[in-house]
């Protein structure tokens, strides 16, 4: 029996149209990045004579090399600390059944409701007093604290769906709670760890306000702040901006494509948990 009907054809056509619609921003991004400085500015008009000079100019003029190193350092260190601390914090919250663990879990969730803008001035003052302004470590401390509530929520939701049998078997073999967690439980958290990693990488890598605030006036800049040098009140070099954007999103797209299956599996497991 042929189940392919006209409704299926219409649905497929709509899905293709929606997919093409989502590709329009990517097309505009790449199209403008390939235009000559004196070329037409219409974003949807295909470039007649594409040039790669914009990429070299953006890389050299904005100092994207050192900025990419700073962004990578902040992202890797921040996400690594977030994964370690959030997983360790979520383990007792998910396994201990006393009243304090429930209240503490909800206390972490309050951090999801409070806007981070409330703490911008106090945190800036604290970083200044600690002598961390102009240092990438100020960003690491900020991101770890900011992303902990959401990461703990994901880990706790996933851990509650993991059976206790594995830990009981490890305890019979003489493993303590910490050894059981790192050797038995944490490897089981690979799906949700992939989700935590990619979501936090996107947040840290693309953030503009915090590096602008904490690294202002110093030689150390991250990619979003470095690209901002091409935009001013009177002149905006959009071809260089878009070329720099293509360079900056390339590492993130690579990480996402490599971890795509893990991310989807982690979301599905978190929803079931």
How would you sum up this structure, described in words?
The structure is a single chain. The protein has 273 residues and is mainly α. It has two domains: 6-51, no CATH class; 61-272, MetI-like fold (Orthogonal Bundle), CATH 1.10.3720. It contains 13 helices and no strands. It has helices at residues 6-33, 53-61, 64-95, 99-113, 120-129, 136-159, 165-172, 177-188, 190-206, 209-214, 223-227, 238-258, 260-272. Helix 1 packs across helix 12 (238-258). The chain is globular. The model has no long low-confidence stretch (mean pLDDT 82).
CATH topology name of the largest domain, in short, is MetI-like fold
Principal-axes geometry comes out as globular
Can you tell me the CATH superfamily of the largest domain?
MetI-like
Approximate helicity band = over 70%
CATH architecture of the largest domain: Orthogonal Bundle
Tally of DSSP β-strands: 0
Largest sheet: none
Number of domains: 2
Q: Which whole number gives the mean pLDDT?
A: 82
**CATH class label of the largest domain:** Mainly Alpha
Strand content: under 5%
Q: Quickly give the structural class.
A: mainly alpha
Q: What Rg is obtained from the alpha carbons, in whole angstroms?
A: 23 Å
Number of helices: 13
Uncertain stretches of 5 or more adjacent residues: none
Q: How far apart lie the N and C ends? A: 38 Å
Order of helices and strands: HHHHHHHHHHHHH
């Amino acid at each position: 029996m042929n189940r392919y009907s006209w409704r299926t054809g219409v649905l497929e056509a709509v899905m293709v149209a929606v997919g093409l619609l989502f590709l329009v921003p990517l097309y505009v991004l790449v199209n403008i990045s390939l235009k000559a400085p004196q070329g037409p500015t219409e974003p949807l008009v295909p470039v007649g004579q594409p040039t790669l000079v914009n990429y070299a100019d953006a890389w050299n003029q904005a100092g994207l090399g050192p900025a990419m190193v700073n962004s990578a350092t902040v992202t890797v260190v921040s996400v690594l600390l977030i994964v370690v601390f959030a997983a360790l914090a979520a383990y007792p919250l998910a396994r201990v059944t006393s009243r304090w663990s429930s209240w503490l879990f909800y206390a972490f969730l309050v951090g999801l409701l409070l806007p981070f803008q409330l703490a911008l001035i106090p945190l800036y003052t604290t970083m200044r007093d600690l002598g961390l302004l102009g240092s990438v470590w100020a960003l690491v401390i900020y991101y770890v604290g900011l992303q902990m509530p959401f990461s703990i929520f994901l880990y706790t939701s996933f851990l509650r769906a993991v059976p206790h049998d594995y830990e009981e078997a490890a305890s019979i073999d003489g493993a303590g709670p910490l050894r059981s967690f790192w050797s038995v439980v944490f490897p089981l958290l690979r799906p949700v760890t992939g989700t935590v990693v990619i979501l936090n990488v996107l947040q840290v890598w693309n953030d503009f306000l915090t590096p602008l605030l904490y690294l202002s006036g110093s030689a150390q800049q991250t990619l979003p702040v470095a690209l901002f040098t091409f935009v001013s009140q009177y002149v905006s070099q959009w071809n260089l901006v878009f070329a720099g954007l293509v360079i900056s999103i390339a590492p993130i797209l690579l990480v996402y494509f490599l971890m795509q299956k893990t991310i989807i599996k982690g979301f599905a497991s978190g929803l079931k948990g």
